[in-house]
Amino acid sequence: MRVLKYFRAPSSLRHRSSPMAQFLRRFSSSPMANEDEFQSPVEPSQQQSQDCVSESYLIGFVIANIVGLKYYSGRINGREMVGLVREPLNVYDNNAIRVLNTRSEQVGHIERTVAAVLAPMIDSHTIVVEGIVPNTRSNSNRYRIPCQIHVFAKLEASSTVKSTISRGGLVLISESDTSFGLSEAVVVKEQMGNGDKRSVDKIFKLVDENVKLMGKLVAAEPPREVIKSELFAHQKEGLGWLLHREKSGELPPFWEEKDGEFLNTLTNYRSDKRPDPLRGGVFADDMGLGKTLTLLSLIAFDRYGNASTSTPTEEPLDGEGDKIEKKGKKRGRGKSSESVTRKKLKTDDVVGMNVSQKTTLIVCPPSVISAWITQLEEHTVPGILKVYMYHGGERTDDVNELMKYDIVLTTYGTLAVEESWEDSPVKKMEWLRIILDEAHTIKNANAQQSRVVCKLKASRRWAVTGTPIQNGSFDLYSLMAFLRFEPFSIKSYWQSLIQRPLGQGNKKGLSRLQVLMATISLRRTKEKSLIGLPPKTVETCYVELSPEERQLYDHMEGEAKGVVQNLINNGSLMRNYSTVLSIILRLRQLCDDMSLCPPELRSFTTSTSVEDVTDKPELLQKLVAALQDGEDFDCPICISPPTNIIITRCAHIFCRACILQTLQRSKPLCPLCRGSLTQSDLYNAPPPPPDSSNTDGEDAKSSTKSSKVSALLSLLMASRQENPNTKSVVFSQFRKMLLLLETPLKAAGFTILRLDGAMTVKKRTQVIGEFGNPELTGPVVLLASLKASGTGINLTAASRVYLFDPWWNPAVEEQAMDRIHRIGQKQEVKMIRMIARNSIEERVLELQQKKKNLANEAFKRRQKKDEREVNVEDVVALMSL
DNA sequence: ACCGCCGGGTGCC
DNA sequence: ACCGCCGGGTGCC
Fold this sequence. Notes:
The longest helix has 23 residues, at about 545-570. This protein has 4 domains: about 40-195, Alpha-Beta Plaits (2-Layer Sandwich); about 205-530, Rossmann fold, CATH 3.40.50.10810; about 545-685, Herpes Virus-1 (2-Layer Sandwich), CATH 3.30.40.10; about 705-880, Rossmann fold (3-Layer(aba) Sandwich), CATH 3.40.50.300. Helix content is about 40%, strand content about 15%. It has 34 helices and 25 strands. Strand 18 and strand 19 (about 655) form a beta hairpin. The protein binds a DNA duplex through strand 1 and strand 4. GO terms for molecular function: ATP binding; helicase activity; hydrolase activity, acting on acid anhydrides, in phosphorus-containing anhydrides; nucleic acid binding; zinc ion binding.
């Protein structure tokens, strides 16, 4: 019987999997022997649409044994997900289903009786399966372990699937018995409409934010011996990122180290073997930002390199030292025949570092080859980087020949042709690095090219593309497979961890994808990049308070310190968070102008007791009123100026509709601080004073100019003297301050425009248009609230920016500057921060710096969920207690 | 004995 | 695998 089966195998395959070959593979522990165990990203039979995944729902699960454990090195601990991969070319059973662990190591097979039922349905895309191993402790059999196979199918196919499974003699444990399954299916269906497309736009959101907020990008200079062109700032930052990704020894995303063990938090895989760091990633800058030059700069380091730059220094390169070292003879011949002097080579040899392979393989579409050549000629010192064209006509079949070059250029087509050529030198070579240019061409639809590049051997892998996602997030799967980013490089894991949750509108899918891309990819868009912009300078202008202001400020600060110290002493600081914020707010307002803080609010001790305001709604209302005419803010849910303002017990502010909807939909928690929150914790804000601008105007007239206002005025006048046509923007976070500024500036002869959160969208665009209008000449000042100037607003008509008060968050300040310093800006830009001396404002600056540093040194710790914008420690620093 | 039964060899697909 | 299954050895009580 067994003999018969053996002969049924296609003869073309027999040599690959002859019993002897199997025997060798089984009992050889050499890593090389596992090379052909590597899973290609696309099984030949599964190339078509992946859409079925998103419309599927869980029909139920069957229990099946994973068998053959003793023949494979992959281990599992139980309570973890496994990858199920069809193996149609298995000689013993074309229904075979392989079981892989998080590390892509094979654990075993699904027992054949079960595979026989499931495999045909998998192949016809009728079902999708996911495997979970419940627990191995109770059932510690060395030869087989049970596994839950979850079966997903389209709603309309479910009855067929169910009967096929039971006819095959399997027991389907179905949740629809409890009527839960079906209702879930309906929900899933409804959410389908806006599933993938909209999410895709968000995938890279975190990438941007991460880069911006964490300031992770550290510029690096390419070696001058190789690269003769000066890089743009964003290219230097890109280079710094590439270097960082290649050298960093940090754990890949979703891995944690826990008492010497390494845990994959998504699959629950545990092992004491450290997962390899991901040396490489997705370089996804927009087209036209100079990715090619940046990559050439990276390659230049292989030759003249080293980190005499500002790049972070990390662990030594190459964890695969042993493996490659064994092939010493190859390296010797390849490199010593090169006569070019290499300073770095020596150093490396002394340190004992592995330098065996310095060749980078670049794969690109044929049309792009000439671009690489042009860039090489244009930007590199002639004769330094040696390039071999492995494309077209005559190509060497000698690996050693290829090793002589720094760069081997080839095309996807060439590789595809060589797929079946065993002795292809490109396939035999162990590259230092592989760069897939225009990597989106290997997306899932192009199975052959995907397969080929995935099998290439290299310790650093880069996917380079300006359009990482064309047909949906599934495109990214091909890149993961190429990067060998475990476990996502196994389709089954990708599907269950990312694709299915995403398709079902499950937040986990998107957030996982965001985290994933944030750590392994870099994407800057053309719009945000700063190519060829005139320089910008940032200055700080310190303002001395007048004696009168000083006296009031010192008095208030003294009082504030007392109040806060009291709260700290009796441990109720955080319970009185709202009080503290309003105290700090008052102090900050005083630095701008005393009239921001009306006389009745000039004492903290009278109106604010030690008890929290939350127990006194009338005080809360006062706070609301103060906030409302004071700080400019957005509803964090809809990210626009709030309508029908609601303030919560925990002092967060939302639109009425937004927060009510949120509370209804999810748990009764505040979306910002996650404190418990019910409808009774919501307080209405009093209706906004409709003619506030009129009364404010009167106020301004009656009061004299504050020190800061005077300082601003003289700065503006000095700039006007220099160039009467300079347009300026003044940002303040206090709406009232912007109103106060109008009168004195008008009086000094400036044309005033105003942009604030209370304006309609239409009005705002009108103001911005007017400000940018070249016919509006003379000294023009735009008084703007930053939050009102949403993203994408263009204020490049201005060349001076005044930040009238400092923001907590340095990124917000940066955003403000970006409105002016962006593409289209023709003049040099000067930014001036206005800071009151010896005041809380100086400490806000320090806080800014601290936050920046924190982000720099520990960017991997993304902001903790409960971290407030300002914490206890910050309060202590701000109050200089 | 074209059976039953014994006990060794063996073990994924 | 302290199992099941296979197939050879064996054969009254």
